[in-house]
Amino acid sequence: MPFSVGHVCPERGFVHVFDDTSLQILFSALDTISDFIDYLVKKETFIESGRLCNAAGEEELLGVYLRETNQQGEHDFVFRQARGEEVILLGEGFWDTFTKSVQRRRQVEANRISYAWDRLIEKFAHHITNGTSYYPRGQPVGHHEQALRAMAREPRTRRRLLARGIIDLLENTHGSRRRARIISSDRNLPCYVFLAFPRADEPYSEYRDQRRTVLEAYCRVAKLIDKRATEIVGIATEPGVSDDRSEDHIVLDVSEWTAEQQAAAKEIQAETGILMNLRQTTGVEPEYPTADEGKTPRGTVAYRSKIGRNDPCPCASGRKYKRCCGNRYDLHGFPRNDSAADHRGRIP
Question: How many domains does the structure of the chain reveal?
Fold first, then answer.
């Protein structure tokens, strides 16, 4: 049975089959490994449920998936008008409607900044695979792999937040100042420490070694702030705007954080003053931006600070969150009463 999908050979897992057109559509709409794998998993579950009778094409499945979210705030095959075990037949038009929507155009525009994160991954990978990484010298590719894997796990919407965080830090830090920013962990995603570290008159080798040492210190102290973090990725570079810069990256596995490590981190903080006086900000990163800045459409995947239902709404309307953006919009910006869903993330 060529071109079959599903468990053709159960012991070998689920089989997905795409033609050139559908594969190009998938890779253009789901262009991170996390977003792509999440779609495949949800599609497997949907097909195995027996509810899918027929679909006009892969893109129609994708159109439904990207328009809807489940109760956990994840994109899923949710059919709000279907009842019980009714089977689903998807005709044409779901993908076309999605691609022509205002929300999709705004999403594409909002995603532009996120590709700075992709370029940073590619730059690290280029130097690692070509043996031109400055530090640590002579280490095998596997030594660097964990940090790159962590960065590559980030979905597209959170990459916007990360890219904007590091770009803003560099643009607003004078060349002679040292500044850092922490972006807290989110579910299975790491905590990040971005460090803008200036160079004085010391030799370049001393500067790089010192910068990496300070970066590691920041990462260890960051665990005191983001207690939920199980993995911390640090990225350091020169402050200011310049095409001529270098970057360091490290990763710390803090999933088993001992009392000794806690005490050592507190000692570093006390001696150096690292991350002692934090200015905490919160932000909302909706997957589908609306015309009203700061308003998050309901039913979309968003990265935001932890907002209680009775907290002031982050859109500055003066109303409680549950009475405003938390109970206001559907994916396309129209009012609806489905439960709000989001991914959580804080930006100290």
Answer: 3
Specify if 4 maps to a domain. Answer: no
Task: Looking at the structure, tell me whether residues 243 and 140 fall in a common domain.
Answer: yes
Buried b (16+ CB within 10 A) or exposed e, 309-326: eeeebbbebeebbbebbb
Q: 154-175 in b/e burial notation, b at 16+ Cβ within 10 A? A: bbbbbbbbbbbbbeebbeebee
Tell me: do 78 and 210 sit in the same domain.
Answer: no
> Do 217 and 137 share a structural domain?
yes
Q: What is the pLDDT of residue 318?
A: 59
Q: Are residues 252 and 336 in the same domain?
A: no
Residue 293 has pLDDT above 80, yes or no: no
Enclosing domain of residue 54: 10-100
Cα angle value 228/307/29 (rounded, 5°): 80
From 47, 65, 100, the end of a domain falls on 100
**Which range is least confidently modeled, 185-199, 211-225, 280-294?**
280-294
Rounded to whole angstroms, what are the CA distances from 201 to 18, 178, 266?
57, 15, 30
Inter-residue contact 310 to 322 (CB < 8 Å)? yes
pLDDT at 336 over 90: no
Domain annotation covers residue 219: yes
Looking at per-residue confidence, does 314 or 141 come out higher? 141
Question: Residue 119 burial (CB < 10 Å; 0-12/13-18/19+)?
Answer: exposed
223 and 118 in a single domain? The answer is yes
pTM of the model: 0.79
Longest dimension (CA), the chain: 72
